[in-house]
């Protein structure tokens, strides 16, 4: 039995959960999320909990058992309150701005890099060097934050680039003066 998959998922206050055929839906103050269930697992709502069971002991079924449970828990948490990622820019002249529909980054290239904000995500720039990404889908928030970071990853000699708030970049020594 999957250690993660056999634990039931508690339904939080203010979150409404429903199953329609093979579609799982969670809606709350954070937003509405849907997930198409795999044929290897069965999901049932029992009281104030969501219980996930697998149909057989095949390798693929065991893998999807824990994965489905984790995805459903993330959906319930995202419907209750939004997920958030924070990025910061390090470097002289590195600035960012957002108008809600796209994020503009000036990070040392000849041109400004513009990234379109996906549907269901809110992006704000409280100042020139910080980006706040919010959304009910953990996957979408993490993916978009990763795409913004990939525009200019922190380099190991000066630490310049886009990084997560609190991320530690190990700085290399560089050439030694002889």
Task: Describe the protein in words.
It contains two helices and 13 strands; from the N terminus they run ββββββαββββββαβ. It starts with 8 loop residues before the first strand and ends in a 14-residue tail after the last strand. Helices cover 20% and strands 39% of the residues. The chain is of the alpha+beta class and 178 residues long. A hairpin with a 2-residue loop joins β3 and β4 (31-36).
Low-confidence stretches: none
Nearest-integer average pLDDT: 92
If strands are numbered along the chain, what order do they take across the biggest sheet?
A: 11-12-7-13
Fraction of helical residues: 10-25%
Provide tags for this entry.
alpha+beta; elongated; 3-stranded antiparallel sheet; 2 helices; 4-stranded antiparallel sheet; 178 residues
Brief sketch in words of this structure:
With about 180 residues, this protein is α+β, with helices and mostly antiparallel strands. It has helices at about 60-80, 140-150, and strands at about 10, 15-20, 25-30, 30-35, 40-45, 50-55, 85-90, 95-100, 100-105, 115, 120-125, 130-135, 160-165.
Annotate the secondary structure layout.
Layout: E1 9-10, E2 16-20, E3 23-28, E4 31-36, E5 41-46, E6 49-54, H1 59-80, E7 83-90, E8 95-98, E9 102-106, E10 113-116, E11 121-127, E12 130-135, H2 138-151, E13 161-164
Antiparallel strand pairs: 1-6, 2-3, 3-4, 5-6, 7-12, 7-13, 8-9, 9-10, 11-12
């Amino acid at each position: 039995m999957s250690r993660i998959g056999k634990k039931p998922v508690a339904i939080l206050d203010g979150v409404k959960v429903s199953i329609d055929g093979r579609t799982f839906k969670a809606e709350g103050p954070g937003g509405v999320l849907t997930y198409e269930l795999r044929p290897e697992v069965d999901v049932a709502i029992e009281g104030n909990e969501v219980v996930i069971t697998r149909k057989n002991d095949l390798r693929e079924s065991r893998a999807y058992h824990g994965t489905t449970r984790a995805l459903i828990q993330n959906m319930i948490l995202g419907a209750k309150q939004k997920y958030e990622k924070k990025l910061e820019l390090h470097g002289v002249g590195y600035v960012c701005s957002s108008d809600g529909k796209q994020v503009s980054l000036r990070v040392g290239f000849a041109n400004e890099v513009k990234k379109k904000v996906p549907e269901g995500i809110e992006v704000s720039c409280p100042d020139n060097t910080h980006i706040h990404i919010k959304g009910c889908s953990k996957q979408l928030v993490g993916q978009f934050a990763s795409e913004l970071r990939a525009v200019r990853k922190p380099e190991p000699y000066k630490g310049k680039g886009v990084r997560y708030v609190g991320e530690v970049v190990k700085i290399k020594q560089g050439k030694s003066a002889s």
